[in-house]
Amino acid sequence: MSRHSVLAGAPLLIAHRGGSGLAPENTLPAFLNGAGRWASDMIELDAQATADGRCIVMHDERVDRTTDGTGAVAAMSLTQLRELDAGYRFTPDGGVTFPFRATGVQVPTIEEVLEALPSIRITVEVKSAAAQSPLFEAIRRFNASDRVIIASMYDRDRSLFPTYGGAVSGSLEELKPFWIRHRFGMGWLKAPKCDVVQIPEMWEGRRLVTRRLARDLHRHGIPLHVWTVNDPADMHRLLDWGVEGIISDRPDILGLVLHERVGRPLAPGHGAT
Q1: Assessment of whether the complete model's pTM goes beyond 0.90
Q2: Separation between Cα atoms, residue 220 and residue 106, nearest integer Å
Q3: More exposed terminus of the chain, fewer Cβ within 10 Å: N or C?
Q4: pLDDT band for position 3 (50/70/90)?
Q5: 167: in domain
Q6: How many domains does the chain have?
Q7: What does the DSSP assignment read for 245-271?
């Protein structure tokens, strides 16, 4: 369907932030767990920029929700971020236990992720415009453009995207004209300017993903990835609609659904006792 090999092999099992239901989100333990134990096809992660111009992996603009620290990522150096416990907040049981606290989990750089996962496919969601330059430089240095999709919701954070040679996910602004045409039954008329569409089922109370949307995108050869899907019934329904990728906090559950649906081999984690 796509000229980019990173999008091949649908339906894809994509671990959201590495599989944030199973390990601390956007950390190396999560990525290694998602890629190894749960055999994900792709890892999804988020990129922010430090005060000293490094690209680090974190979703929020602040460190408060996922670490033992407080403050804005953009106001902190990489050295300061390294001092934080990135496993501090993760709990698999609603706050009863915190198994990753004080185990040395750090906020990773994009270089560390590319080095630790030399063959896994990755979607990078750019969360700030300042992250673009160090991110693209790291991708070039690791010769990874054939396995990295770049994404960002807003055009304000995508000024350098036209220089990227790999696959690009559409922004909200890019997708809006197509969405309007689709709503009026003219989705066949013109394709959105992107290689893949990665969106949630619902956005601000409005349903985005339907069987017809998937069909309209397929007419243009554009795959559809949906986030963040953790319920097996929703996974089955989206697969019925023909989506090419599901982005989930629970790659273990999605792996079982894909085993049932398409005979996907069970991951090593499914055989653990």
Answers
A1: yes
A2: 41
A3: C
A4: confident
A5: yes
A6: 1
A7: EEEES-HHHHHHHHHHHH-PPPPGGGG
